[in-house]
Amino acid sequence: MRPMRKKYTDEFRAAVLAEIAKADFSVNATLARFEVPRSTYQEWKRRIARYGSPNARIGGRPRKRTHLDERIDQLEDRVESLEEGFDAQISPAPEIEHGRSSHVD
Prior knowledge:
Largest sheet: none
Distance between the termini: 94 Å
Oligomer: single chain
Low-confidence stretches: none
Number of helices: 4
Radius of gyration: 25 Å
């Protein structure tokens, strides 16, 4: 019987990759500290290159959208709308002459 494959959480992957990105220690030293096999790290790098994330799920069915996904979409749309409105309200700053007072007696 094969030993069970170790599963890593998304947060754990992010922590390991953040430590590697800091470059305080070598990649191998960091992987050893976190007890992550080099082959697993290589797989994470492949996922980043292909999907943009080490947490990408490969194969299987896509995850169903939940009410939280819908709410996130609504809030992102609202933020975008507010930013556009805010940008439209901002007028350019008046030009100031350097070294001279614009005050007239």
